[in-house]
Amino acid sequence: MPLDEIQTELGSDRRVLSELVSELNDRYRHHSATDVFRGALKDGGEIALVSSFGAESIVLLHMAAVADKHTPVLFVDTQLLFPETLAYQAEVAERLGLTNLRVIRADQEEIDRQDPYGALRLGDTDACCTLRKTIPLQRALRGYDGWITGRKRFQAGTRATMEFFEVEDGTGRIKVNPLAHWAPEDVRAYMEENRLPRHPLVAKGYPSIGCAPCTSPVKEGEDPRSGRWRGQDKSECGIHFVDGKMVRIGEKA
Ligand code: SF4
Question: pTM of the entire structure?
Answer without folding.
Answer: 0.88
